[in-house]
Write a structure and sequence with these properties.
- By secondary structure, the protein is of the alpha/beta class.
- Among the domains are: about 90 residues, Rna Polymerase Sigma Factor, Chain: A; about 140 residues, 3-Layer(aba) Sandwich (Rossmann fold), CATH 3.40.50; about 150 residues, Rossmann fold, CATH 3.40.50.300; about 130 residues, Methane Monooxygenase Hydroxylase, Chain G, domain 1, CATH 1.20.58.
- About 45% of the residues lie in helices and about 10% in strands.
- The relative contact order is 0.08.
- One of its GO terms (biological process) is mitochondrial RNA 3'-end processing.
Length: about 775
């Protein structure tokens, strides 16, 4: 080696040798521990939180960053100064290091728990064994250990340095904890804290006039905002306000309607709660259905509105169960709560008998189901009896819901029966005499985002039952009962309980907070950023972090598409139904087209959805048209966030209105569509025309049965015990199709068993004859 070459090599090594001099442990583990306690180990910044009450992070969410093993680094300096490393000896040395309990303890003090320690070791081992040329200082240290001139513990500083490269969050944990500190959300809204607001709580059950009194103050104000949970409610206030000669604009996720021809903002705004502005000053703000502040998915929107609206008066409407919590929440802002209590304007009673048969329906009845399958089945049975019925469920477009409600409310229309989901609980004024619960079990999402079947809560039951005998309807007294006799005592017990008090309010990470996280963790995916945020977040006992599964679902779906973080975040907050494959596919195509910087034009959208669409011929077609309507809603929602990329809002809105008409026609002919879908569909609630008491038979003989062959459990004589099967279908635990499949499998199994038994008997007889 020439002298000049040696000079260059040593000049390049200078910084590594300096580091090594300060890092090198010369006398084994005891000295290393003393150095650590004296805080003299290089690269050993303590990442544990200074706050004693900080919860440990969920390190299973930390995704290691991949490091390239083919980079040259310092070239072959280490090998030239020492010698090439023996891979087999390296492996033995690294495994000894991994088993050292002292090293694991040191790593734990730096934020590397057992999970991260193991992941870091796997990455470090791969890096050391596969990298073509290691950094000179690491190469020399490893060579010294192999030659007996060093201790295995000397690897630790380089191991820790590698850990912070593959897990960059270790080096900024304190900053991440500060960003995700959600303990004082009231301080997020300085404009609201700069004024002294008056909070009035209008507390009462459904149909008590609480919202009416709040809206009267809303109409009398010089400027006001109404924040509701549904587009239908916002639209109702929009029409009521303008009908009272109070100019009012409408703002929802998919719509902006200005009453001023030139587009100037009116003094009054009716909006969905997610769309309310926390920077615009108002005289009055109305927040409807405040009990939804505890909703696992949307509760954050009520928290934001309550804490952030800049209004002199905040009128809050909701259940009495929320009064104490809202009062406590307002203590944190220094604002007192004035409570106005209301009683129900018209009474409703719980009947002492169940309906039991669709033959016992009366005008003004509403059958409440918790699944579409029940909606389809029951509506067909009703029309098979010569009665007309209206149908309302959640995925129908708002225009179709209003059309069906108008048909049911019209005294001159022959339609006197309504079949609906709990979507009728809010947003629709319906003339209902009797609420009939077809089931008391509903699929719900828990706080972990898991779907589970559970009995409806008292709050949900009261919200639905309260639709009977509304003050403005032709029925001055409401009635509530169940379809099935066994459910009636359960319903009475549910309604007799007091509503569970509200104890927590929802929060959600903002785009700004996620952007700050991304600054520290530039290689993390959006889904992983949100996971780490929630894991590190600190909330006090009054709050919880809302479920983010839908957000993560969309984030993972478009992770491979090149988008900047803010655009990606906005796309992932789009309100779409992830159960609809066509909607998800459209969302993906929208994001891909957006990433190419190509505007999504009207013609492009029409090609994608197959416009113009044909009238539905069966239920499958109707469900697809509902999905197409959701896709157009998605376009409109995105158009107000990215106006230049979604330019044809007016044209899309026009075809959406046409599509709404097509869907309305399909819903009016829903019985024909059901028949076209499955001509052999059975009646899960078919019962005898006479009552059970008149028949004088037991429930087993005359109870609800399936009229098809082979369903349910078979009795001794081959009869079908359908009580279990009908209940499973009714409760949404089985679908008719799945029941048919189970029947076929049971029949095949029975046939095989019979053949096997017959063959066994023949074999037995043959053996006896031989004897």
């Amino acid at each position: 080696m020439s002298l000049n070459r040696c000079v260059r090599l040593f000049s390049r090594l200078q910084r590594h040798l300096n580091t090594r001099t300060s890092c090198r442990v010369t006398s084994g583990c005891n000295l290393l521990l003393r150095q650590h306690q004296a805080s003299s180990v290089v690269c050993c910044r303590n990442v544990s939180s200074n706050s004693s009450n900080s919860k440990p992070p969920d390190t299973s969410l930390f995704v290691p960053v991949s490091l390239k093993t083919d980079t040259l680094g310092d070239g072959s300096v280490g090998a030239e100064l020492t010698q090439p490393l023996d891979k087999s000896e390296l492996l033995k040395m690294l495994n000894r290091f991994y088993k050292r309990k002292e090293m694991q303890k040191l790593a734990a003090n730096q934020g590397l728990d057992a999970c991260l320690f193991h992941q870091t070791f796997i990455s470090f081992r791969k890096y050391v064994l596969e990298t073509t040329s290691l950094p000179a200082d690491l190469h020399i240290t490893l060579n010294d250990i192999c030659c007996g001139a060093g201790h295995t513990d000397d690897i630790y500083p380089y191991f820790l340095r590698h850990a912070k490269q593959v897990f960059p969050m270790l080096d900024c944990m304190d900053d991440l904890r500060k960003i995700s500190d959600l303990r004082v959300p009231a301080n997020w809204y300085p404009e609201a804290r700069a004024i002294q607001r008056k909070v009035i709580f209008h507390a009462g059950p459904t149909n008590s006039g609480k919202t009416y009194h709040a809206i009267q103050r809303y109409l009398a104000a010089q400027s006001a905002v109404y924040c509701g949970p549904l587009k239908l409610l916002a639209h109702e206030i929009f029409e009521k306000s303008n009908g009272a000669s109070v100019p009012c604009d409408l703002v929802t996720g998919e719509d902006r309607t200005f009453v001023d021809p030139e587009g100037r903002a009116a003094g009054h705004v009716a909006c969905t709660i997610e769309m309310c502005s926390v920077s615009t000053p108002y005289e009055v703000a109305v927040i409807d259905e405040i009990q939804m502040i505890r909703d696992p998915s949307r509760g954050w929107a009520w928290t934001r509105a309550l804490l952030g609206l800049c209004a002199e008066e905040i009128h809050v409407c909701g259940e009495p169960a929320a009064v104490d919590f809202i009062r406590e929440l307002m203590y944190t802002t220094g604002e007192e709560v004035e409570v106005h209590n209301y009683q129900r304007l018209t009474p409703f009673s719980i009947l002492n008998h169940a309906v039991e048969s669709l033959d016992n329906l009366r005008p003004g009845d509403c059958i409440v189901c918790f699944s579409k399958n029940d909606i389809y089945s029951i509506s067909r049975q009703i029309e098979a009896r010569g009665l007309e019925c209206a149908v309302i469920y959640g995925s129908l477009p708002p225009g179709t819901k209003l059309s069906q409600a108008k048909k049911f409310n019209d005294p001159d229309d022959p339609c006197k029966i309504l079949v609906a989901t709990d979507a009728i609980g809010m947003g629709l004024n319906l003339s209902i005499k009797r609420i009939i619960f077809n089931s008391l079990v509903k699929p719900n999402m828990n706080e972990k985002g898991e779907k589970q079947m559970e009995t409806i809560s008292t709050s949900q039951a009261l919200q639905i039952a309260g639709r009977a005998g509304r003050f403005s309807s032709v029925f001055k007294e409401g009635e509530v009962t169940t379809m099935h006799r066994d459910d009636l005592p359960i319903l009475k017990e549910i309604l007799s309980r007091s509503v569970d008090p509200i104890e927590t309010a929802g929060l959600h990470p903002t785009a700004e907070q996620i952007e700050m996280f991304a600054y520290h963790l530039p290689d993390a995916t959006l889904s992983n950023l949100v996971d780490i945020f929630v894991s590190l977040s600190q909330v006090d006992g009054m709050y919880f972090v809302c479920n983010i599964d839908d957000f993560k679902f969309l984030a993972d779906m478009i992770q491979h598409i090149p988008l900047n973080l803010r655009s990606r975040y906005v796309f992932c907050t789009a309100p779409i139904n992830k159960k609809q494959p066509f909607v998800c596919t459209s969302f993906l195509k929208f994001a891909r087209q957006f990433s190419r910087d190509e505007p999504l034009t009207f013609n492009w959208v029409c090609r994608h959805i197959g416009w113009p669409v044909a009238a539905p011929k069966n239920i499958k077609d109707l469900v697809h048209l509902e999905a197409v309507h959701d896709v157009l809603d998605l376009y409109l929602w995105l158009s107000y966030r990215f106006m230049d990329m979604f330019p044809d809002t007016a044209s899309i809105r026009e075809i959406q209105r046409e599509l709404d008409d097509v869907i309305q026609t399909g819903v009016r002919n829903i019985t024909r569509l059901i028949r076209a879908t499955d001509p052999n569909i059975t009646d899960p609630l078919q019962t005898h025309g006479n009552s059970l008491d008149q028949a004088g038979k037991s429930r087993e003989d005359t109870g609800s049965t399936f009229s098809t062959k082979g369903r349910g459990q078979r009795g001794p004589g081959g009869r079908i015990d359908s009580s279990l099967a009908s209940r499973l279908v009714r409760d949404g635990l089985l679908t008719p199709d799945l029941l048919k499949q189970l029947q076929r499998e049971w029949s095949q199994s029975s046939s095989r068993s019979a053949l096997l038994s017959e063959q066994t008997n023949k074999d037995s007889k043959g053996k006896k004859k031989k004897k």
